[in-house]
Design goal:
2 strands, globular
Length: 268
């Protein structure tokens, strides 16, 4: 692999970690479109581009999700009974969705990803937050929510925070606990998603030599450590910079990256 790609993956990992610490936003929305472009330039066959980007992004989320879970647990912000009810369904939903993703062509995955990211960006721009209007459902209701959160998260390579936090706040869970609990379920999402993409891509012809299933190891090994290093820097900057303005800028950037991903897969 050309050393220039080492620098590209390091820079991407550093930027993702910085944004995660600064804005509390997972890196899938950044990683997937940029990885898609890199894989196109590297000559990955068109039919594997989106799958490889999604799988690599999911695997790269595992270390940061672990660190986030531990941090929120230390601050007593994780509602572990909720985690216990959500996690089995989230694991199942995430893992099964990777099998569905393996059957969807690259362009179909790109369209789903772009639509989701545009909707999420619009929500960020409008600062829409569900008003607490009900209590938490029972085990069956939580399992249904977990299946949906896990399934969508696997198809767009996110840790689930953009879905879990609104759901929990809607159910009258205090925001700090909603964020902490979301961080806790982010780890099983990342683990199940990474495992699913690894299994579904195993032995698939046309993947790069350094790929394990739909996980490209050079990208993973270079992105993940640097994202962990830069996340605390972003967290410190969050207390000094106008985060509200940065969130709006970030929302526009997510939309641009999603549209860029569409352009890449439809013209490559």
């Amino acid at each position: 692999m050309d050393p220039i790609w080492w620098l590209a993956y390091l820079a991407l990992g550093g930027f993702v970690g910085l944004m995660a610490g600064l804005l509390g936003i997972g890196g899938g929305g950044i990683m997937v479109p940029i990885l898609t472009s890199i894989f196109v330039i590297q000559g990955v066959p068109h039919e594997h581009i989106a799958h490889l980007a999604l799988g690599t992004a999911m695997a790269a989320i595992v270390p940061s999700a672990s660190a986030s879970l531990w941090s929120h647990h230390r601050h007593g912000a994780v509602r572990w009974p909720i985690v216990g009810h959500l996690t089995p369904a989230i694991l199942a939903g995430t893992f099964l969705a990777t099998f569905i993703a393996a059957l969807i062509p690259t362009r179909g995955l790109a369209i789903f990803f772009a639509v989701f990211m545009v909707l999420m960006s619009l929500q960020m721009l409008a600062n829409l937050k569900p008003k607490p209007s009900r209590t938490l459902p029972g085990p069956i209701g939580l399992s249904g929510a977990g299946l949906g959160i896990g399934g969508i998260s696997a198809l767009v390579a996110i840790g689930g925070g953009s879905l879990t936090v609104p759901f929990l706040t809607w159910c009258n869970v205090r925001l700090p606990h909603a964020i902490g609990t979301s961080a806790a379920v982010g780890l099983p999402i990342a683990l199940a998603g990474a495992l699913g993409y690894l299994i579904n891509g195993w032995g698939t012809p046309g993947l790069p030599d350094a790929a394990m299933g739909y996980i490209y190891l050079p990208a993973l090994l270079l992105m993940a450590p640097l994202s962990i290093l830069t996340a605390p820097i972003g967290a410190r900057l969050a207390h000094r910079l106008p985060v509200g303005i940065l969130k709006r800028v970030f929302a526009f950037m997510l939309m641009a990256l999603a549209l860029q991903m569409l352009y890449t897969v439809f013209t490559s």
